[in-house]
User: Fold this.
Amino acid sequence: MPVRGHVGSDYERLRPEFRVIQNPWAPSERVMLVPSISPDVALIHAIAATEDGMLLLDHMEDDALLAQASRTVVASTERVVSSQELRRSGEGVILEGIHVTALVEAPGGALPTLVRGAYALDADRIREYIAAATDDATFKRYLDRHIYG
Amino acid sequence: MTRRSSAILTGTSTADVARYTKEELMACVVAREVRDGETVAVGTLAAIPACGVLLAHFTHAPRATVIIINHPDYWPFRGGSKEFYDFAQRGKLDLFFLSGGQIDRHGNLNLITVGDHERPDVRFPGGAGAAMLYYLPHRVVVFRADHSPRIFVERVDTVTSPGSTPPDVVRPGGPWKTVTPLCVFRYDRGSAALVVESLHPGVSREELGRRTGFAPTYDGAAGVTPEPTDAELELLRTRVKDTVARIYPRFAMTAFAG
Assistant:
């Protein structure tokens, strides 16, 4: 896909898969093409979801795009609701269930990051995570305390 | 415990030392670059530009369209950051802000690596949109909250975003000003280089030279950056501070002198 900018930067040197071509509609211009990203699996967390996988997602994030780009999409959700209730919600964007492979009800599943309207980002927990993640033993203690505990 | 940012050292009187912080001065410099009616966007990790744009919006630029990534009150999109990037690629931004791990004399920005790219001494988070957002917005103000020879270098190790590009590259916009705790550079298109437009109050040419990794060149009319007015400081410490605290709570606690 074409992107503007980039031409003349070191991305041309560092990323050989990025191609620079003549713009076919304006031959005096050079533009960059980059390959699309197609993840095997996407893990995304929804504000709410229906039983058949329709998701209510944060409108400030790129989860809907990520889901459409990925081959397999595993969604977790704060709660499972009826489609009427999902559509009545004023916040967020709706992603149809055709994009979703599997759904898991997991309240608090985004912690220590946030779900707008449900809970805030936990900055202390993120700092704890960063410190714990430097070493297998401390990371295991983090998992035992906060994930499996 | 909250830590106050060190007040700018003007070296003149103790009254000046406490009157404003470097963040407040930089926010006022940024505000003066915002024109009424423009579409102005502020990216992530850009608290000082957010303050400056809001200060302008609350004073001389009430009809500006203000976009602040991650701020729910200043995010006029429903389609995630993709919608914002598409908006920018269409050339719809008048003013945007970028920074760099390294910034060089020619306005090149480095957000990738320092040292050998394969075995870097420093790995920065990456360019994200900076290789596009330095080209499409009509004016880009580069900002950096600290100023040292390690940051302001003769030549960046890796060019994420070049200051200038050949004529056959689509580039309607580009670098405009660079704002630091010591000075304001303007980007001179003719020489493709940063030129000192003003030194902040109390900063000497000797100090700027010592703390910059290239020999600064000066505009013929280079003067002193205007100090924040009392009215600007009052607004920064109330309405602007309250608004940015929503996404920069730590900054809001430390960057303001009052």
Observations:
- The helical segments of chain A are 11-14, 63-69, 83-88, 123-132, 136-147.
